């Protein structure tokens, strides 16, 4: 099936190239765009609104994942803060011990009593060298830990800002969707009222026409009844009461002027 579709597509491309030449790709692209627009215009707006709502709902897993990542980063940053603070306190104590031993060497004594125990100058110098080396290593370690802490804190701040933006955007989109849904319902209600009005107007017009036709038919029947009632059972005396007009009188009246000339 796939092979057949590929072959069909190649044939169509070949035919288009033969007909349109180098402009075939432009024609195909334009036709595809028009088809997509035509199909999209046929999609009901209610479906598009539901699709937009689903896209907003799809943000929830991303928000939850961001919250989980942020929670992990917060725990890690807090742990690093404790480690760095402890490292700083340790370095401070090491520094104080080094300076204390260093002050003993200034006395130029051959032996030193520290915490009730006697030490030679060589022992003090060796211990001081060891402490100083460890101090510098601790400082370097602190620098690295502070760099790590700063990097983790920066990443945490960025993720918290992204999460805040994501939540705010989701709320804005939900508000816009609510307004869109309200507008859609309002328009549907208006359309429903308009369609109902058209139906009612059509029915009213039919009812008015029917009533007018019925009134006309009743008028005709009343007129016929009046004629029948007026003439029924009466003696036709009107025929005898009508004066008879003789033909000679009609002619004399019509040609009155001519007859007068002849008489002269």
TrEMBL record:
Top-level taxon of the source organism: Bacteria
Coiled-coil spans in chain: 156-224
UniProt keyword annotations, A-Z: Coiled coil
Record flagged with keyword Coiled coil: yes
Protein name in UniProt: Chromosome partition protein Smc
Organism of provenance: Rubinisphaera italica
């Amino acid at each position: 099936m796939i092979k057949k579709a590929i072959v069909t597509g190649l044939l169509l491309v070949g035919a288009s190239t033969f007909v349109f030449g180098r402009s075939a790709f432009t024609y195909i692209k334009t036709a595809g765009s028009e088809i997509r627009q035509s199909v999209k215009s046929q999609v009901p707006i209610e479906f598009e609104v539901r699709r937009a709502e689903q896209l907003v709902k799809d943000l929830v897993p991303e928000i939850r994942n961001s919250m989980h990542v942020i929670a992990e980063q917060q725990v890690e940053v807090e742990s690093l803060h404790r480690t760095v603070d402890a490292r700083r306190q340790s370095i401070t104590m090491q520094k104080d011990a080094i300076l204390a031993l260093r002050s003993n060497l200034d006395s130029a004594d051959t032996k030193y009593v520290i915490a009730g125990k006697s030490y030679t100058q060589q022992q003090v110098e060796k211990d001081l060298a060891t402490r100083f080396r460890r101090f510098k290593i601790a400082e370097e370690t602190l620098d690295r830990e502070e760099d790590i802490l700063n990097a983790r804190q920066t990443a945490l701040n960025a993720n918290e800002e992204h999460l805040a933006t994501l939540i705010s955007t989701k709320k804005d989109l939900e508000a816009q969707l609510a307004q869109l849904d309200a507008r859609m319902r309002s328009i549907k209600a208006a359309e429903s009222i308009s369609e109902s009005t058209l139906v009612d107007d059509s029915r009213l017009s039919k009812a008015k026409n029917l009533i007018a036709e019925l009134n006309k038919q009743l008028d005709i029947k009343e007129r016929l009844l009046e004629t029948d009632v007026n003439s029924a059972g009466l003696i036709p005396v009107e025929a005898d009461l009508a004066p008879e007009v003789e033909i000679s009188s009609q002619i004399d009246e019509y040609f009155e002027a001519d007859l007068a000339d002849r008489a002269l």
